[in-house]
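Its record is set out here:
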Amino acid sequence: MKRKTWFMMALAFFAMSYAVSAQEASLQDFAKAMETLPQLVIYQAKEIVTLDPAKPTVQAVAVVGDRIIATGTLDELKAAAGTQPYRVDTTFANQIVVPGLIAQHDHPLLAGLTMTSEIIAIEDWVLPKGTVKAVKSHEEYLKRLAEANQKMKDPDTLLLTWGYHHYFHGKLKKADLDAISSTRPIIVWHRSAHEFYLNSVAEKKYGVTKEWFDKLSENVKKQCDFENAHYWEQGYFTLLTLVAPAMASPERVLAGLTFVKEYYHANGVTLGCEPGGIVSKPLQNAQNAVLGNSSSPFRFYFIVDGKSITGAFPDEKVAEETEKLLSWGQGMTAFLPKQIKLFADGAIFSQAMQLTGGYTDGHKGEWIMDPDFYARTFKVYWDLGYQIHIHVNGDAGLDIVLDQLELNIRRHPRSDHRMVVVHFAVSRPDQVERIKRLGAIVSGNPYYPVALADNYRMNGLEPGRADVMVRMRDVEKAGISYSYHADMPMAPARPLFLMWAGVNRITNDGNVRGPEQRVSRLGALKAVTLEAAYSLRMEKDVGSIVPGKLANFTILAETPLTVDPVKIKDIAVWGTVHEGRILPVKKAADATGKISVLGPVLDEPTLAAVNEADRHNHDEGDHSDICMVSQALEAAVYRTK
């Protein structure tokens, strides 16, 4: 009885918003208003996982326009509707409905350009155009590259290929690329997205000359092999200014962003975000044209990169310059206000994170933002009242991050600051306790132990440290809000895959690393829905299926809360409901006709080389993460325009 009464009250409140004021309304007025109310749509499903503690699962949800009005059984909602017109939609009668999945941290441009290049990688990739099979040897790699060259009709068009890894494909020489084509420019983009290899034609076409090289600083030259046309880290970023306009031509950008839109939808994503992304107005316009189109099946948000602002402007200009970017979104894209992205230490894939006690082989980590620069930037944005998202991977880096948070809390207390620890690769139990005490939250990448633990426990880290990377069970037990992200293309932007990684922690070699850090399935689902929304301050609108929130649902064949945990990543995605729009997925089939979820196929040796990606030359120069690669690419594209 209480439940039915609540429904009646909710619907009555909704109805009154369409009626005349209470002082003047009569029963007749109210009756007329009820007759003009919009039609309810009551979706019936096999099961609806709401993430509402009061009603964790229901069988039906009522929607008006783009908002949820009530949940319950079908009979309850029909009775509660009363005289308001409604229709029952049974499209999902045999499906599972969960809150719309959220891709909390990805890089659409970089993901799009890598995924739409000529992929010759160490893993199979299931894409809209079909499955791209892996290659596992030097000879096979060169054979596939030669075939890719031969199938291109215009002999002068750039051949951009992504996925090469020296641990699988052997050492790559400029002579190898020259033998494939003496007329076509070829750029090989390393699987890590931190290195380039060029043939002689590409060198000539893009101005990679001895004169250009001689003008580089000595630090940059240390990360270049000019004779072999191989460039990494600082050398990579310097070369990027020459080759980016060709790599990211308008046609390639359009194709890449279109891919991202299809990929997200195929994997049930209803909302995405890029923290610390776009720095170019022309490129933002390009992203708006694809991702901001009204037909997009999701909304996409951006968070301003704070270091770019404080690095270019004095403190008193930071607020003004940051807020200028808030108008850059359009349609289905927008910048999130009063949120900022900062960077502490280096990337995990390059083993450039800052560790207490250092690495077992003696190499040193790196800072992306010098600690003094970081402290200044943090203070400026803290005093402006911003929510601060911070890239940090090592425990020494996390010490700096938490030190600055505590210092600023003691200096200038703030309520509900929600500082986000982003990536969270290597940490200590005492830091989890400190995160809790200081009111911070965590956005972790559960892919790290899956891809890296087996290798890093033998290279660079002690086994006990490598095995418990991304110690999310400790975070979960402490009652700290945590979310998951992919950072695509570093990991697939597949929320169900991220759930699987966090729940199982099974490496590509079949080992379970850090089993004590496996999270609950409910926690993992929240990490890609409600807690992801919370990390973006959007929990009032999305993340769970409760009255008043947007009607964002992901439609699945099985519930991730009860299916065999090792099968979570393989649950079929029927499609989504986005703000009341029913959007079925266009499925991709492989050569056998089997329908698959888009993304990488993680066969046994697939990630073995990724485990060691970017580890070379880690003791020289600056080190970056994929966020900075994306920024540098975006900036380079339009530097000459």
